[in-house]
Amino acid sequence: MINTKRQEEIFFKILMIISICVIMSILLFIIGTVLYKGLPALDWDMVSKLPGGGFYLGKEGGVLNAIIGSLYLISGSVVISLTLSVPLVLFINFYLPKKSVFASIIRFSFDILFGVPSIVYGAFGFALMIFLGMRASLLGGIIAVALLIMPIMVRSFDEVTRLLPRDLPDALLSLGATKYEMSKVILRQLMPGLVTAILLAVGRGIGDAATVLFTAGYTDNLPNALNHPAATLPLSIFFQLGSPVEEVQNRAYASAVILTVIILILSFSARYFSSKYSKNKI
Amino acid sequence: MNNPGLAFVSDVFEDYHNKTILMKLPSYHTISIRNLNVYIENQHILQDINLTIPEKSITCIIGPSGCGKSTLLRTLNRMHDDTPEVKINGQVIVDDEDIYGVNVNVIDVRKKMGLLAQRPCPLPMSIFDNVAYGPRIHGLKKRKAINQTVIQYLQYVGLWDEVRGRVRNSASKLSIGQQQRLCLARGLAIEPEYILGDEATSALDPISTKKIEEMFVKLKEQYTIILVTHTLRQAKRIADYIVFMYLGKIIESGSTEEFFNNPKKQLTRDYLSGSFS
Ligand SMILES: Nc1ncnc2c1ncn2[C@@H]1O[C@H](COP(=O)(O)OP(=O)(O)OP(=O)(O)O)[C@@H](O)[C@H]1O
Ligand SMILES: [Mg+2]
Known about the structure:
The structure holds 2 protein chains of 2 kinds.
Chain A: H1 2-41, H2 44-48, E1 51-52, E2 60-61, H3 64-95, H4 101-115, H5 118-132, H6 138-162, H7 167-174, H8 179-206, H9 210-215, H10 233-241, H11 246-277
Antiparallel strand pairs in A: 1-2
Helix pairs in contact in A: 1-11, 3-6, 3-8, 3-10, 4-6, 5-6, 6-8, 7-8, 8-11, 10-11
Chain B: H1 4-17, E1 31-40, E2 43-53, E3 58-62, H2 69-76, E4 86-94, E5 97-98, H3 106-112, E6 113-116, H4 127-137, H5 143-156, H6 160-163, H7 176-189, E7 194-198, H8 206-219, E8 224-228, H9 232-238, E9 241-246, E10 249-255, H10 256-261, H11 266-272
Parallel strand pairs in B: 3-8, 3-9, 6-7, 7-8
Antiparallel strand pairs in B: 1-2, 1-4, 4-5, 9-10
Helix pairs in contact in B: 4-5, 4-7, 5-7
The complex binds adenosine-5'-triphosphate (ATP) and magnesium ion.
Magnesium ion is lined by residues 69-70, 118, 198 of chain B.
C-alpha cells in the first residue's frame, strides 16, 4: 500500500520532469535558431529604416514600416475587441442567471470561433471589404484581426470571471450597488485576468500572417492613413523567407527576433501596470 | 397604509390567525413576514414563515446549521433576485410596504436593510475606500463628510486604532477578524434602517466580540436588528427576542427570558440542552 503510493509519487514526478524537459527544449531550440540566424543580420538599420534597395526583397534598409504597421494594427484590434468583449463577458456572467442557456450558447459559439483557422478570418475580412467597396487597408486589417482575437479574449476573460467567488458581487449588491456600479468594482478585481486575456490575444494577433495578407496588404512605406495598406511583421517575415537570396532570408529571422522582443516588452509592461493597478486585489 | 390605526388593526387580525407573532405594535418600523415560503431548486427551504420583528430591539435567530437562517436574512434584503432557481412566495412587509411588491425599487430595499454577510468579503480597494464605498454610491460627495463617516464607523467597530496609520492600504491584508469588523463598518456606513447580521462575530476573539455586542446594544436605540448566531450565550446576552428555526420552520419564538427559562416545545428543550446542534 505504502509502496504503491511511493511509486505513484515517483512516476508522476518523472512524468512532470520529462514534460518540462521536452517543452523547454523545443522552446529553446526555436528561440536558439531564431537568434542564431537572426542576430547576425540584426542591426540598427533593421529597426530604424524603411526597406531599401528596390522592392521588398531588398537587402538594404530595415523593417520599420512593418514594426509600426504591426503596432498600429494590434492596438486598433485590441481596442475594438476589448470594447466588445468586456461588456459581453460581464453580461453573460453577471446579468444572466448562473445556468443561463443563452450564456452557454455564447460560450459554445466562441469555442467554435476559436478553432477557426486564421486564413478564414482573412478571407471573411476580404469578402466583407469587397462588399463594402474597400481596398486593402490598415482599417481592413484591424477589423479582421479584431475578429480573429475576439474569441480568445472572450473565452480567457470569461474563464477567470467565472472563477470569481460569488461573495464579491453579493457584497456589492447588498450595499445597494447597481449592476453597473458592481461591474466596475469587479473589473478591478479581474484586472490581472483581463491583462492575461489581452496578452494572449495580442500574441495571437500580432504574429498572424494569414489574416492580414488580403486585408491589410503590404507596403514599403509607413502606414499613413486608415484607408491605405499597412505592412506587418509576419508578412515581412513571410516575404523575406520566400526570397531566393540567403542574406534576405536571414533578415527574416532578424524580423522574428524583433517581433519576439516586441511581445516581450508588451508582456512585461502589461504585467507591471496590472500589478500596480490591482494592488488592492482580494 | 400609512395610518397607524389601520396598521394596528391588521396586526391584531394577524395575531388572531397565527401564533408565532411576537408583539403587537403599530407596524411602523417593524418587519412583518407573512406566509413566506422559499424554494431552492424545488426544495422547500423555508416553510410557512410568519414572523413580526419588533422595532428598536435585537432579535436573534438560532438553529442548527443548514436550517435556513441565512436564506431567511437574504430574503429580507432581496438578495435572491438574481437567482431564478430560488422561488419566493408570501409577503415581507417593511414599513407598511411589501418589499416584493411591484413598484418597489430593489436598491432602496437593500439600502434600507443593511445585510452583513456570513463570510466577510472586503472589496478590492483600500480600507478607507471599503467603508467609503457605500456612502459614495448613495450620493455622498463631500470629502470631509466622507472622511468623517469612515472614521466614525471604523471607530464604531473598534478597528480605527488598529488601522489608523494604514487606511490607504489594501483591505485584503487584514486578518479575518479585522475583515469581519471592516465589513461591519462598511455595512453600517450606508446607514440602513434595519441591520441583518449573519453571524457577525463568528471570527472574533472574546474581547472584540464583546465590543461588537455592546455596539449592537447601543445601535438598537435607533435600529431594528436581526442577528443570526450560533452561540446561545450570545443570544442570551444581547437578544430581546429569540426565534428558533429547525429544518426551514420556525419552531418557537418569544422574548429571550421566556424562551430560555420556559421553552414550550420539546424540540427547543432538546436544542437548548445540546442534544443536537
Ligand atoms: N443557492 C443554493 N442552492 C441550493 N441550495 C441552497 C442554496 N442556498 C441555500 N441552500 C440550501 O438551503 C438550506 C439552508 O441554507 P442556509 O445557508 O440558509 O443555512 P443556515 O441556517 O444559514 O446554515 P449555517 O448556520 O450553516 O450558516 C441548506 O440546506 C442549503 O443547502
Ligand atoms: Mg448561514
